[in-house]
Amino acid sequence: MSWDTTSISLSAGCDLFMRYVTRTSALEYEDFNAAKLRLIERGEKFGEISLKARRTIAMLGQDFVFDGSTILVHGFSRVVLEVLKLAASNRKMFRVFCTEGRPDRTGLRFSNELAQLGVPVKLLLDSAVAYAMDEVDMVFVGADGVVESGGILNMMGTYQIALVAHSMSKPVYVAAESYKFARLYPLDQKDLAPAIRPIDFGVPIPSGVEVEGNARDYTPPQYLTLLFTDLGVLTPSVVSDELIQLYL
Amino acid sequence: MPDVQALVNDFVLKLKRRKIEGSQASARQTAELLRSVISHHRMPYTNQAQALINAVRAVGEHLIAANPVELAVGNIVRRVLHIIREEDLTSTESSFEGLSLSANSDDDDNSESEARPVLSAAAVAAAARSTLRAPSLQTLLEGIPDSASAPHPSSSGGDSDGKSKSAERSSRSKKLKHDVIEAINELIQDIDTCHEQISEQAVGLIHQNEVILTLGRSRTVKEFLCAANEKKRSFRVFIAEGAPRYQGHVLAKELVSKGLQTTVITDSAVFAMISRVNMVIVGVHAIMANGGVIAPIGINMVALAAQRHAVPFVVVAGSHKLCPLYPHNPEVLLNELKCPSDLLDFGEFSDCMDFGTSGGSPLLHVVNPAFDYVPPKLVSLFITDTGGHSPSYMYRLIADYYSADDFVVQRRTSS
């Protein structure tokens, strides 16, 4: 198979599009070609909406960045980057803490992007999150998928950060496009098929030692404050409402 | 027109001088003012709804700027804008229906060609309706009118009848204005009767021999408690006095005159008494979009005490207090510092506030903030005039009452 079977946003987006195809009057045409044209048109519109979504989210999210704030970012999310870009271009003064993001060093890439914008950035070890949390005003993360409980699936380490933020009562904001809303309801971390990624430890791993290769974890909704989506700023419980309404 | 301008200026001045006490009075007077603005507004021949929206928006900007802390003013401005949008939509929809009827009766032979534009016009109206609603997954794709299949609604109506067009149009303009004013009257009535609507739910929430705690004085709470008392529920009320204005004393007097068992405590005794309390009922200043509330000072402490002892924390508020904004930074925004004379007597403390000592700034400072922010997780239930809702449900009420386009009334000064 040539596509990534573990990608949540891909399958969720396809599910959503299927829903638009089956639920609407698109297929009521007698003429096959007309129906086909209509479907193609819908597909293009779907793509267009998805492109516009990031811009909408940036507009909504940048309001939450206030002058003098410190933002902790985990993972490389293009939406989060867009939010911060817009905030920076609106001359908000803020600084960003980036986690290193092992094993694929997403934080290095992210900090590079921010440094080019002239935003003060600091890199942290993934294990330094709790150490740095008291300086942090808010946590920004993206999401691979937003599930029916209102929780998110995101890069490994998000759950840990959300727990630390929650215990220090810092808000956790998630930026995610609505095509990432997935019809999943994970009950615990092991409930989903793992997305295995190779991890380079630099040194050879001793024989007989196992490696946890999953690249994703599940953050339950009670640890999230708000979600910025192209449907507006939502509380986690709204996500379940939206999904239930659509798939009922 | 000049008399309306005078009315607006007068109201702005009152708001600036904080002459209007309470969000209900502010909401009501805002609605009345906007009603007269609309009724005196001269309607242009084209794009009337937009003209009305602009007029209301212009006035609204002034009102909100006059007292940004009184969120009810902005809420009512947004409600009125939403009303105009809705009425405009229903009037266009009904005119399309009339058009389709006449088209069908006139010529049956080419109904095939006529049927399509009428259908698409309805589709455009439906699409416009869905843009009025808050965006959702369902309307994400349907919400956009099809550029390929839909001809312009104005051109479809153009060729049908030229003679009666102007008459129809003027009657439509009168109708829109009339409908809007009618709807605003309903809104004013809703604001007036919100206390009764809320009080009706009192019997279902307050049980026999319960102990209720409240802080300060809120008219909504008073009527809520009195309504339960009238229905022969016997219960006791603890009133934290609500420093520094001690409005709790006034409430105690009012409740005793109605024959309620009342106990007055100091604000600092809330934690000591909370273990004996069955329910906390408070009135608030505003409800934010995330379900958090802006409330008189001291309420956050009560909410924390209630959470510590797992006592339900119930907020009673009319729907005019529902604000579609998020508290981005509640500690800094949305608060007001009141006069320090509430706390200290100027005469007695005049020597401590001497500007002559220590380089021009006095050693003694007094801070008297008016409001607290209570996060949504501390609120158990909201009782509004539309029933009981949990904090996470507030977004749905907001989607019902407001259009997403109106959330930001003030144009930002781009700098």
TrEMBL record, chain A:
Keyword field: Cytoplasm, Initiation factor, Protein biosynthesis
Kindly indicate whether the keyword Cell division belongs to this entry: no
**GO molecular function annotation:** guanyl-nucleotide exchange factor activity; translation initiation factor activity
Subcellular location field: Cytoplasm, Cytosol
Q: Does the keyword Protein biosynthesis apply?
A: yes
Pfam families in alphabetical order: IF-2B
User: What GO cellular component is one of the record's annotations?
Assistant: cytosol
Subunit: Component of the translation initiation factor 2B (eIF2B) complex which is a heterodecamer of two sets of five different subunits: alpha, beta, gamma, delta and epsilon. Subunits alpha, beta and delta comprise a regulatory subcomplex and subunits epsilon and gamma comprise a catalytic subcomplex. Within the complex, the hexameric regulatory complex resides at the center, with the two heterodimeric catalytic subcomplexes bound on opposite sides.
The record's family statement is:
Belongs to the eIF-2B alpha/beta/delta subunits family.
What name does the UniProt record give this protein? Translation initiation factor eIF2B subunit alpha
Which species is this record about? Vanilla planifolia
UniProtKB/TrEMBL annotation, chain B:
Q: Where is this region: Disordered?
A: 95-116, 143-175
Q: Which GO terms describe its cellular component?
A: cytosol; eukaryotic translation initiation factor 2B complex
Query: Per the record, where are the segments of Basic and acidic residues compositional bias?
Result: 160-171
Write out the annotated subcellular location: Cytoplasm, Cytosol
**Keywords, in A-Z order:** Cytoplasm, Initiation factor, Protein biosynthesis
Q: Does the keyword Magnesium apply?
A: no
SUPFAM superfamilies noted in UniProt: NagB/RpiA/CoA transferase-like
Which stretches are tagged as biased composition: Low complexity? 145-158
Alphabetized GO MF terms: guanyl-nucleotide exchange factor activity; translation initiation factor activity
Any Pfam family the entry gives: IF-2B
Highest taxon of the lineage: Eukaryota
Under PANTHER family, the record lists: TRANSLATION INITIATION FACTOR EIF-2B SUBUNIT BETA
Regarding protein family, the annotation reads: Belongs to the eIF-2B alpha/beta/delta subunits family.
Complexes and interactors: Component of the translation initiation factor 2B (eIF2B) complex which is a heterodecamer of two sets of five different subunits: alpha, beta, gamma, delta and epsilon. Subunits alpha, beta and delta comprise a regulatory subcomplex and subunits epsilon and gamma comprise a catalytic subcomplex. Within the complex, the hexameric regulatory complex resides at the center, with the two heterodimeric catalytic subcomplexes bound on opposite sides.
Q: What is this protein called?
A: Translation initiation factor eIF2B subunit beta
